[in-house]
Amino acid sequence: MDAGGDRALHSTNIALIREVYDSEYSPHCFSMELEKALDSHCSYIVIEPTQLGDETARWISFGNYLHKTAVISGLTSIISGLAWPDNFAPQAPLSILSTLCTGLYTASWQFDHCVKYQVERDPRKLARLPILGALTAASPVVLVRKDDTKRKILHCTVSLAAAGLCIYRLYWTIK
Question: Which whole-number Å values give the CA distances from 160 to 89, 114, 144, 149, in the listed order?
Answer without folding.
Answer: 18, 24, 29, 16
